[in-house]
Amino acid sequence: MQPIAIFPASGALGTSTITHLLSSIPASEHKNVTLIARNPSKLPETLTQHNPRRVTASYESPGADLEVAFKGSSVLFLISYPSYVHQYRVSVQLPVIDAARRAGVRHVFYSSLGYAGEHGRQSKAVVMQAHLDTEAYLAKCAAESGGGAFSYTSIREGLYAESFPIYTGFFDMSDPNVTEVKVPHDGGPPGVAWVKRDELGEASARLIQRYAEKPEGFRYNNEIALLTGSRTWTLRETVEQVLAKTAGRPLKLVPVSVGEYGSLPRNRKVFGEDESVTRGWSTAFEGIKAGECAVVSPALKEILGRDPEEFDVTIASGGKWQQHG
Q: How far is Cα 152 from Cα 105, in angstroms, rounded to an integer?
C-alpha cells in the first residue's frame, strides 16, 4: 500500500475518515498512515492507539515545514480549510498543494463540497467558490505534470445531514419556543440530497484505500466524485416533516428576505453586524434554489456497497449538529 497522509487530521470528517481507514487496513500498514495536525498530542486515542505516524503542521505552517510533513507520503487527503471566505481559503489551500507536490505526493484527494452538481464548474454559492478554484488548480497541476506524475480526485461531499442548522436559520431542536424557521428560500423544490457525515468519511476512506492499494485504473483519477444521499428533501420537508417530528412539535418554514434573515437574533449572533457576511452566506440558498444540491449520485451506494442512510433516520437518531463547508 502506498503511504498516505491526512491533513489536517482533525474535525468530524477527518476523524471519521481516519477511523474507517485504520479499521479497514491491516495493522501492519498503520505505519504507512501519517496524521498531520496542529497539535498531534491532542488527537484522540481512538486514532492513535495503533501508532500511525504523527506530524505537527497546519495550514499556517511555512512551506518548508509542510514539505517535511508530507515527505514520504504518496497519497494525500487534503481536508479543506474551514472557512467560507473565498480568497483567504484559496490563499492557504493552494500553497499546501504546492508543498505536497514538492514533497513527492503523487495523488491528492480533496474534500470539496456538494454544490455545483456532479461536474459543474460554476456555483451561485460563495461557499463553493474556493472549492471550484482549488479543483481547477488541481486539474491544472495534473495537466502540467506530464506522464501522470501527479493526479487528483475531488470528493464533492454532499451537504451533511448534521449541518442542517446552518440551512434552517440555526434552528435549535431543544428550544420549545421556536416554532418557525425563517430562511431566504420558499422551501420548495429543488431540494437537498442530504447525506450522513460518517458515511462520507467511510466512503472517503474507501476511495483513498482503493487508490493506495491499486492506483492503476482508479475510477476517479483526475475526476470528481460526488457523494450524496439517495433522494432529495425540500427545505420545507426538512423543516416541517423531519425536524418537526424529531423535535416533537409543529414547525413552519417561513420565507423571508435576505435583509430580514440577517436581522434575526440567531443569525446576528453567528454573522455579527456586518451585512456583507450575511449576504455572502445567503448565496448558499441561491445555490439550493438553482438545484446545485439536488443532484443524486449513485457513487456513495456503489462505494459503500449498501444504501446510504436516509436523512430522516440520521436526524431521528440524534447527534452533534455541526457546520459544513
A: 10
